[in-house]
């Protein structure tokens, strides 16, 4: 309960306001808003005088200027610790690690899908895949390319060329053979800065799990030239017995793997990732074929369930 004060209990200022303060006439909401914006009696704009506004503006200007300078100093210090040409954390110290993933092109429009499906007699059906591959291979080489081989790696300031003319039927002029119901799929190793493959240094000491046709291919190639041991080998086969029966013969171009002279990747200007064109020469039509392609090197860890060292592809040609 509020007790009303007697005049004798009020202070001098309260008594003065009680008897002498000029009573203001009642105002509408619009008039109150207008007076809040500009009060001619007190010279206040939005409840503050010019002096008050200048003080608070100066405070916030100094505050935000100091904050901006602090952020700029932190950013400058951070950038001084970075190298534009190479990452600070590499290989085992990096999040990416030391196990390169294997990818394929063309990729389906759905991110989570790995199905390449089309009708071999319908240009509108397979043109999407042809266009995807054309876009992927667009760009070409720069001015610092070098025609490398096992005995002639790229000199300093140069990068190895990727010879697209060596892909036989898997070229744009041939529509990557999609119109013939014998599609080409391109494999690539994901780039890891500074990673070097550890090759199998003998054709007699190959992994037991390696497909027999790849083992025989390696023996034939290395019998001709030992330099071919410096290769990250690739194998593609049907995942299940039915898939292996339906996939038909496979051709790998230009090699059945990634030549060692493309490694390591060190963010060279104009660097071109090596590619392997996988040509399915007679896949069974009307059947969904599950394919697993795998990369082979001592330091490429394989785990099918985790998708490490391999890639899963599904192809259906009607």
Counting DSSP E segments of at least 2 residues, the number of strands comes to 13
Give the number of domains. 2
| Strand arrangement across the biggest beta sheet | 4-13-12-8-10
Radius of gyration: 36 Å
Any overview of this molecule?
- It contains six helices and 13 strands.
- Strands 4-13-12-8-10 form a five-stranded mixed sheet.
- The protein has 318 residues and is an alpha+beta fold.
- The model has no long low-confidence stretch (mean pLDDT 87).
- The chain is elongated and about 115 Å long.
- The chain has two domains: 32-82; 93-317, Immunoglobulin-like (Sandwich).
Q: Summarize this, please?
A:
The chain crosses the membrane at residues 58-79. This protein is an alpha+beta fold and 318 residues long.
Key traits:
Immunoglobulin-like; 26% helix; disulfide bond; 318 residues; elongated; alpha+beta
């Amino acid at each position: 309960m509020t007790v009303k004060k007697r005049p004798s209990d009020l202070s001098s200022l309260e008594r003065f306001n009680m008897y002498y303060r000029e009573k203001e006439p009642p105002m509408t909401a619009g008039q109150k808003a207008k007076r809040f914006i500009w009060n001619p009696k007190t010279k206040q704009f939005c409840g503050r005088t010019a002096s008050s506004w200048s003080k608070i503006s100066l405070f916030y200007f100094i505050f935000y200027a100091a904050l901006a300078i602090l952020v700029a100093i932190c950013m400058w210090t951070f950038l001084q610790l970075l190298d534009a040409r190479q990452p600070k954390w590499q290989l085992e110290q990096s999040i990416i690690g030391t196990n390169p993933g294997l990818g394929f092109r063309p990729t389906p429009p759905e991110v989570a899908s790995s199905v390449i499906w089309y009708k071999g007699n319908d240009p509108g059906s397979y043109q999407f895949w042809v266009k995807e591959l054309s876009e992927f291979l667009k760009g070409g080489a720069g001015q610092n390319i070098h025609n490398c081989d096992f005995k002639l790696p790229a000199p300093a300031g140069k990068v190895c060329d990727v010879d697209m003319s060596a892909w036989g039927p898997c070229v744009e002029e041939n529509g990557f053979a999609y119109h013939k119901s014998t599609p080409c799929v391109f494999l690539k190793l994901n780039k890891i800065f500074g990673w070097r493959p550890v090759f199998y240094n003998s054709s007699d000491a190959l992994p037991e799990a390696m497909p027999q046709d790849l083992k025989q291919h390696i023996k034939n190639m290395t019998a001709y030239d030992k330099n071919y041991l410096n290769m990250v080998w690739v194998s593609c086969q049907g995942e299940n017995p039915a898939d292996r029966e339906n996939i038909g013969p496979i051709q790998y171009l230009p090699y059945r793997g990634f030549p060692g002279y493309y490694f390591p990747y060190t963010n060279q200007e104009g660097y071109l990732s090596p590619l392997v064109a996988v040509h399915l020469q007679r896949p069974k039509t009307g059947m969904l074929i599950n394919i697993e392609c795998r990369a082979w090197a001592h330091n490429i860890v394989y785990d099918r369930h985790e998708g490490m060292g391999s890639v899963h592809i599904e192809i259906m040609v009607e």
